[in-house]
Amino acid sequence: MPANLTPEYLEAEKAYREAKTSEEKLHCLEYMLSVIPKHKGTDKMQGELRRKIAKLNKEETKKSGSRKSSMFNVPKEGAGQVVLAGAPNSGKSTVLASLTNAEPEIADYPYTTAMPQPGMIPYENIKIQLVDLPGIGKDYTESWVPGIVRNADLALLVVNLASDEVLEETEYVLERLTMGKVELVEKVTQRFKPDGSAQVKARMLLTGSDHPDAPEVIELIEEVFGRNFTMWRMGRGMDDLAEKVKINIFQALEIVRVYTKGRGKKPEFQDPVVLPLGSTVTDFAFQIHKDLARNMKFAKIWGKDKYDGQKVQRDYELVDGDVIELHA
């Protein structure tokens, strides 16, 4: 069976061949594994990618020690990984505490966060990982921060409306990430580039919306950065905005929740299979079991704008909320 590799995979493969460091190679391999078509024709290639990733992780652990290695690679959990990137005292830890059950140290002095601090955002019947990172400032920036941002599914560029140097701080965060070969963009057009850099989807999160000067500062921020980023707002005591941010995060991740159904049984709505937007019935079947995906003849589907038990083929594109019954 031909591999039928996608343009995204081929771009990542080219970036891997041209990568200069182990960090760049590792991120290219992880992305290649995430976008490679999942079918019998690529089984050996998937196994080889996993072997190379394991080897590089082992080498990094030996070189850097376990503490630095844990910083370098924050394991993804839940339906997606979202990172908080911003200047010191931009309100990242407060955002983490507001959206998750994590209890980070929150203080008025800079660089309170010294290591990645993950938490889980509850959203309906799934959880989304949110990772707070040390501040990116002119005085000091941890060298491994861009690497974690690079690997994320979504980055939130946190901007404090109460800061007197809000423009300079934000510009420096973007500049420092660019130095680490990470470009924050509204829409990813090329995940990996020939020079080893990477684009990461990002949104700007404005904290301190409850500050008296917030309306004037927001106008300034929109004038400078409004063409580059969609902006979301949060503030102390503004729970409605926090809930809206959760919804926005889910939508920005561009994922769908699909549910399983056995023959003659009711759907299982508690533990959905989470897939990238644009995934097919075949992609869903591979998440259940690769042998089932290979032997599947067709599927029946229940969902919005469909009649119950509608028969669909392997290449049918799924939408959020679909219920699938597989037939081999």
Major pleated sheet: 7 strands, mixed
From the spread of the alpha carbons, the general shape counts as globular
Q: Kindly state the number of beta strands.
A: 12
Counting H and I runs of at least 4 residues, what is the number of helices? 10
Low-confidence stretches: 66-71
Strand content: 15-25%
Instruction: Report the span from N to C terminus.
Output: 19 Å
The assigned structural class equals alpha/beta
Describe the structure.
It is a single chain. With 328 residues, the protein is α/β, with parallel strands linked by helices. Helices cover 38% and strands 22% of the residues. The chain is built from 10 helices and 12 strands. It has helices at 7-18, 22-35, 43-72, 92-99, 145-151, 166-179, 214-225, 239-253, 281-288, 290-295, and strands at 81-86, 117-123, 126-132, 154-160, 182-185, 198-207, 231-233, 255-260, 268-276, 298-302, 310-312, 323-327. Helix 1 runs antiparallel to helix 2. The chain is globular, with a radius of gyration of 21 Å. 35% of the residues are buried.
